[in-house]
Amino acid sequence: MTPRHSRGDRGHASAFVICTMGAVIACLGLVYDAGGMLIQRGQASAIADEAARTGAQQLDLAALRATGQRRLDPQDAERAARTHLAEAGARGAIAVDGASVTVTARLDYTSRFLPIGARTAEASSTAAARAP
User: Where in the numbering of this chain does the Putative Flp pilus-assembly TadG-like N-terminal domain appear (predicted)?
Assistant: First the structure.
């Protein structure tokens, strides 16, 4: 005995599988790209922290000797923080105010799987550090 199939059911399971697999692949791409963006944001956070600490180490020694107050050399602090950003492959903004340095690090993330909309997103993070 051979099984009887209705001619109206041929190919419907294949179309369902193709549509379902397309949706699964799109979801996997979204998860991969979202995870990559989170990793990039973590890297931006680490770079901002490191650049702020590097800048906060640039004390104005003349002011420290004369007054005993810890104050940053604004030009040296900004230069050191900007150099750290550049060496890490990031760009950003740096603000020096008295004894503190605030750094915003920015990194670009290019999506790998989802070509929908903008392919590049920006991951940024801000950190501050005070002179020791």
Answer: 13-58
